[in-house]
Amino acid sequence: MTLKALLAASVSATLIAALTVPASAEVSQRTIRIANGIAADHPVGDGVDAMTQCIAERTDGAWTVNAFWSSALGDDLQSAQSLRSGTLEMVISSSSPLVAIEPALGVFDLPFLISSEQEADALLDGEFGQYIADMMPKHNLVNLSYWENGFRNLSNSLRPVESLEDFKGMRVRVMQNNIFLDTFQTLGTNATPMAFGEVFTALETGAIDAQENPYVTIDTSRFFEVQDYVSNTRHAYTPFMVLFSKPIFDTYSAEEQQILQECSVVGRDVQRKASRTLSEQSLQRIKDAGLEVNDISPENMAKIREAVQGVYERSAATIGAEVVERVNAALAEIRG
Ligand code: TK8
Question: Which residue among 19, 135, 199, 236 is least enclosed by CB atoms within 10 Å?
């Protein structure tokens, strides 16, 4: 077939598909359970509320949305596995623990990859975000949109961390992710991969000294109760993926699938805004709780960045050379 004929054929196929969707396709009764590791007062709660309201309006109240918090339905990876087998509808999960399912997701874990929220939005909502989302259906997952976990900062119970030397020997919890493990080992810490739901107790009992997460999480998961110092390290930006079970998604009508997709974007915009406003408030609450907040000088930051450069080369093969090339190209374009 010539290119022209091919195009004509696909255009008419699209037309036929459009015509066969009834003008007002059926919206059935549905129940959507959403698994979350973080607590209900995290900005994700605002996003879920907005998404739920959007769904209620668009379905005339035919759908029930139930969100579960603080790992009540299991951790990120377990929940994602439940989606794949069609026993759970939705999870709002950090991309990082899901490298066990799709190694390319490790691209977001490269240290200091993203440098601003504007860059994150452009990358995730643009072609690159779509390229990654397109990898998920083969794992029986549908990525509806990217929300914000955010820039991660190190907290600990031992000492102010203001330079590369200060990381040395610290027992740090990292996500179950080899790139984070490599980064924190390279920084000289004693890094332990652990599911999010176990972090508070591990900090409380002193099994570990440190963890790293955005301020809103240090606040809403109450890590400030069991930590004394927090450094403004911003060493990585983690996206939340709003994932839906593909086996369940496939039973939804085209109209229902569209409602899901569009309402997740309504939720995304509210969630990101809340995340950015609450970040300041969370930092204030952390200070009010008595934690010492440490800034890292530009010279010391340069040394930290330099120390972890090798992580890029060491993880390129696992992530996939093409994925790394594409992210660099996308970021170069965004940066102008
Ligand atoms: C919550 C996690 C959490 C993540 C982590 O389920 O594990 O530290 O940053 O927010 O996804």
Answer: 19
From the CB of 217, is ligand 1 less than 6 Å away? Answer: yes
pLDDT tens track for 315-329 = 999 999 999 999 999
Question: Are residues 311 and 226 located together in one domain of the fold?
Answer: yes
| Domain at 69, CATH number | 3.40.190.170
Sign of CA dihedral 266, 269, 270, 272: positive
| 175 Cβ below 6 A of ligand 1 | yes
**176 CB under 6 A from ligand 1?**
no
- The length of the chain is 336
| 149 CA to centre of ligand 1 in angstroms | 8
Taking CA atoms only, the protein residue closest to ligand 1 atom 1 is 37
CA-based nearest residue to 59, from 270, 258, 269: 258
In tens, the pLDDT along 163-219 reads: 999 999 999 999 999 999 999 999 999 999 999 999 999 999 999 999 999 999 999
Please give the Cα distance from 173 to 204 (Å, whole number): 13
CA distance 111 to 180: 8
Q: Return the residue whose CA atom lies nearest to atom 4 of ligand 1.
A: 94
Query: Is 113 inside a domain boundary?
Result: no
Residue 315: left if φ>0, alpha if ψ -120 to 50, beta else—which one?
alpha
Going from the Cα of 38 to the center of ligand 1, the distance in angstroms, rounded, reads 7
Which tens digits make up the pLDDT trace of 4-44? 444 444 444 444 444 444 435 689 999 999 999 999 999 99
Where in the sequence is the domain holding 169, given as residue range(s)? 151-237+281-335
